[in-house]
């Protein structure tokens, strides 16, 4: 899907108090509790889109600090505008590529990671770019605390099967897996839907989800 560029979005984001400035991101590892001003757990969403999911989560769980990560300025701008309408002290944004996740979070600093409706990168040669790939799972294993969890949702069955196949080689284990989230009461309880989830489930597409943890040696 082609993204519509919004003129001036990069400048707005650079000046926003809700976005951690790119020039100081490299100094963030080990300092997130200082950035938020408290010792609450840190949960992150990688590829947050317009921010509906993470904004709702931050509103519903004020004692957890949330960081939303988005690569595209024109998309992140939508989340910034939402924060301007309803400011939340426990929510910050990062404009960055997910490949650099280890440069902004220290070892064991994150309690939970959310991946929602990630780009499937359908061509085989692009498999390493998929956010639930073993390459990215290796990055997540470093920043996730002992006992932390990663949650992944998608309506793309092929991507979900790929993601499941990446777990064992990367040293991860599944706690819960479903191919139809909205029909499985135990996993659907408390589910917060993203914009894409509302759209795809409205079309009758079943939503796949897993919850996993890292079971290998600590990096």
What does this structure look like?
The chain has 219 residues and is of the alpha/beta class. It is 32% helix and 22% strand. It has a seven-stranded mixed sheet with strand order 3-2-1-4-5-7-6, sandwiched between helices. The protein is globular and about 40 Å long. The model has no long low-confidence stretch (mean pLDDT 94).
Short description:
This protein is α/β, with parallel strands linked by helices and 219 residues long. 32% of the residues lie in helices and 22% in strands. 35% of the residues are buried.
State the end-to-end CA separation.
36 Å
Q: Please provide the ordered H/E string of secondary-structure elements.
A: HHEHEHEEHEHEHHE
Gyration radius from CA atoms, angstroms: 17 Å
Q: Assess the beta-strand content as a share of residues.
A: 15-25%
Average of the residue pLDDT scores: 94
* Envelope shape: globular
Q: What spatial order of strands do you see in the largest sheet?
A: 3-2-1-4-5-7-6
* Coarse structural class: alpha/beta
Q: Helix count?
A: 8
Largest sheet: 7 strands, mixed
Low-confidence stretches: none
User: Number of DSSP strands?
Assistant: 7
Helix % is: 25-40%
